[in-house]
Amino acid sequence: MKVIHVVESFAAGVLHFVVQLTHAMPDAEHIVIHGERPDTPPCYAALFPAGVTLIPWQHVTRDIAPVHDSLALYYLMRLLKQQTGDVIHLHSSKAGFLGRLAIGLLRLPARVIYTPHGAAFLRQDVSPAKQALFIWLEKFGHWCSGQVIACSASEAASFQTSGIPAAYISNGIRCETTVTQRPDTAANGLCRIVLVGRISQQKNPALFNDIAQAFVEQPTVRFIWIGDGELRHLLTSPNIECTGWIEPAEVATHLQQADIYLSTSLWEGLPLSALQAMCQRLPLVLSECTGHVDIVQAGVNGYLFQQIDGAVSAIQTLVADQTLRERLGDASRELLEQQFTVQRMVESYQSVYQK
């Protein structure tokens, strides 16, 4: 089987997703047509298995830009005419729209799958008018070609609510290195609360900062943001440490040494970083948004919150009770192994590809 992946957002979770998929399907031939972003790792080619063909996609950008979008569509059509595949898998909203438009214009016979990884119309940093535009673009793209396969049940539901048919295959990860026992807060004197991701509007760093500020008078409670981004200047609370971009092995080490995983995101598809935290037996304190609601069972493996007071209360409860943290952390790992493994994800995609 020959699978052509088309990716605009070639960084962070989407890049990790495509890397996982190509590693887990060694019997297929993979061609990856990709854009680049400022946070695309410089040595991204080394992440992929041998035999994967990487083809740069010129002029593609994250935001709507008519001139660049027209050029990106032209170059994508040229690339797709040069390749023949059994399946074309489009990743993220921009690739999803331009890819389906290109495939519709070329009338390609391949099976077309589109995974949004956090649909653009879910964005909370744009106006209602722009959200409506994104919904219209999604409807037009669906009319052109392809099947929407969301990466969580809640993301699929958001498409269905907007009048767009969608199925879903939950994201999954390979959980290998894992901590067997959480740190003893009483022994080491610290309770570490971590978040992994780009410091962008989507992740809501202003709220993360406000939550950390509520614990300034508790010196044993520390907040760690693993990642970097354009809004780093918003993380001003003195109890926040920002690591910048670090290697995956270092991320795993930070998660193993942590006590609680916190996410303040405004919207998600289904965050791989939170799944990694579940692998390391961390209780979750997540904002109530698409993607998050699929991985938190309230009071079982963590808590969802809508306002800052809910987040602060949940963290205070967990900081004060190590036994509760361990119980919820164990439940996180159990839920991961039941529903969010890479094996389960890949088997589902293979089934869709082969139909």
Automatic annotation (TrEMBL):
EC number, UniProt record: 2.4.-.-
GO molecular function: glycosyltransferase activity
Keyword Transferase listed: yes
UniProtKB keywords: Glycosyltransferase, Transferase
InterPro entries to which the protein is assigned, alphabetical: Glyco_trans_4-like_N, Glycosyltransferase_grp1
Domain Glycosyltransferase subfamily 4-like N-terminal span(s) in chain numbering: 13-167
Signal sequence range: none
Pfam families: Glyco_trans_1_4, Glyco_trans_4_4
Keyword Transferase annotated: yes
Top-level division of the source organism's lineage: Bacteria
PANTHER family, per database record: SULFOQUINOVOSYL TRANSFERASE SQD2
Protein name: Glycosyltransferase
